[in-house]
Amino acid sequence: MNLPAVAASLFEEARATNERRLLVLSGDRETGREAARAVLEALPIGVSETTLVGPDPFLRCEHVDPKRTVELLGRTRRAIVYDAHDALIPNALGRLAGAVDGGGLLLLVVPSLDSWPDRRDGFDEGLAVPPFDVEDVGNRFRERVVALLRVHPGVAIADVDAGEFERDGLTHPAPRIERGSPALPTDPEFPPEAYERCLTADQVEALEALESLREGGRAVVIESDRGRGKSSAAGLAAGSLAARGADVLVTAPEARSTDELFARARELLAGLDALSVDETRSLETREGGRVRFALPAALDAERPEVLVVDEAAAIPVRLLERTLSVGRVAYTTTVRGYEGAGRGFSVRFRDRLDESDLRVTTYRLDEPIRYAPGDPVEVWTFRALLLDAAPPVAGVIADADPGSVAYRRLPQEGLAADERLLREAFGLLVAAHYRTEPNDLARLLDAPNVAVRALIHDGHVACVALLAREGGLPRETRCDLYDGGRIRGNMIPDLLTSQLRDERAGEPVGSRVLRIATHDAVRSRGLGSRLLNDVRGEFANEVDWLGVGYGATPELLEFWDANGYSTIHLSTTRNDASGEYSAIMLSPTGEAGRELHQRHAEWFAERLEGMLSDPLDDVGPDVVRAVLAATDASVSAGLSDRAWRHVASAAYGPGAFDAAPGSFRPVVVAGLVDGDVALDDRLERLLVRKVLQGRPWNEVASELGFVSTRMCMRGLGEAFEPLVDRYGNESAMAEKRRFVDAGDEADGDD
Q1: Ordered DSSP codes for 152-163
Q2: Which helix (H) or strand (E) holds 201?
Q3: What gap in Å lies between CA 638 and CA 617, rounded to an integer?
Q4: Per-residue pLDDT averaged across 718-728, rounded?
Q5: Comparing C-alpha atoms, which of 420, 337, 347 is closest to residue 385?
Q6: Cα-atom radius of gyration of the chain, to the nearest Å?
Q7: What's the pTM value of the predicted model, to 2 decimals?
Q8: Are residues 78 and 143 both part of a single domain?
């Protein structure tokens, strides 16, 4: 086998077509590594253009740990070598394929393809959730990868043990028509030189859309798959704005992922002879403009005229929300990608952007720039990782309702064998959840603790849920957790044991809803509730509890509450991806689950009072209201006679809240948990903000629209009147009568 010669032919074809090629070196690890060295030595690819991804640096080039491949987002390489013997990580595979430039090679150093699916590696160990072990993990994802490697165009496979090629990967394409220069706008607002640097008509139109950032109150969203030139367009826009004197701030998850953006801005400004200061990520122009970089966490300290958010899909939603205060902002985001934070931008943030005061323009780029359309490596990656998976078209499920659908178990082996069903189910999860990523495809197919259930309408998936078995842990594991150990894949038992100090929490068996997604075309018809009800009917005799954890919003809390789930915890830190505090809810199905739920729901209602005045003092009041309304616990205000007299006098007489604020908090918790006292929304928000979270009077008055602090204080007294009536003891009632009767007598004298 003349491996260097075949690799050279593969590389030449890639260069001639401006496509990428994939070379698989299968067999013994050390032999595969030697083969990779020989290939790279024979090709005209510099060390500075090559990246090795693997556990150790066996090549003289840039080395990246497989768990840190997010560092390659926004960058391009001529050659990437992935040593996947220790672990094939789906997220890493997708990122690496996306980072190879046109005319480049992706090399995979892997075990023998015949035995690889049946081997167990480091990624499998992560799927082996206790009480399962690694031998219980399936092999369907690697079977999928291997099967597609063996049939897909542009993929060469070398058996390094036998010294033979299984496939040479050559496609022998017909000569391609050279891509001509795109037509330029006749009357551009940006410099003509910026448009002359555009490589596609898509890029020209995206740059035209970005012209609107010359005015205030504008936002532009540039969407595309990887390699379409959205960052380059953003760089040309940034340079154009800075050339006219604007202060442009660029932010991204990693500084070096903006290399392409700054390179395009630098080239344009240099060509315009407008550049006065040229540093790595700080450009200044003769007109006083700037293009500079700051990490998302530093945005609060910045006041730019224009903000460019590059790779927005990889930035936590809570940080994206800070960008809405900038009057001119551009977002570039990958539609079908492998950013660490998944689809947070499109699923969680886009609605907030559209509801903001900014006038939003959206443009999508489709034509590749870094490689030719139809590039076989891109097509292979999309198929292998289901990056292009989509829900069924709306028309085929448009008539779905709870009465027309059928509840179905979707076993992992059945999904692996039914590509259409797999694409619909996974596509629905991708479309609905900001965290769904390629690793989840492997988890769906192979994790021994995961189950998939769906509602099917005329053969198509209308609603789908992923469930994970948790609990049922042996005593030694529970003791280790209690003493500070960690455990994979048992989120609720882990939390209740290690953080909330319940050594028995891991004993009952539960099923946690990892994801639930309903097709956009049939939302609000009760399908999600129907699916949860069917799940309960199936699992009621198999587990002690059903549970869920998610980024808490009022709407989601109300949904889960309506479906029989009760709050037992609210995290004290925000989720990095969603920017929201996570709610944990349980729905018991057996006696052990009811005992677990009761002791944690009761304690949650007791401890939330203290949490809201300290770590949770910035949680939105509507979230707090919904959290408490969804708490199924018996709560007693438990005040002394003196405390009740003070609360009643503040409600009906001259008593001052600020003299003893702690007396009021248990009463508010009881009222919001029971839901027996009818108050309007503003008064309930007032109870949360002032009484439970201890915010300053002037801040609360301003936030809730009271005309003055005095009126806000009166509103608090008004809110406490029905609470005193509902929960007050005889001392409270006597205090009430003192002021109410006195008022009645005064009215009679009039």
Answers
A1: STTEEEEETTTT
A2: helix 201-210
A3: 23
A4: 95
A5: 337
A6: 30
A7: 0.86
A8: yes
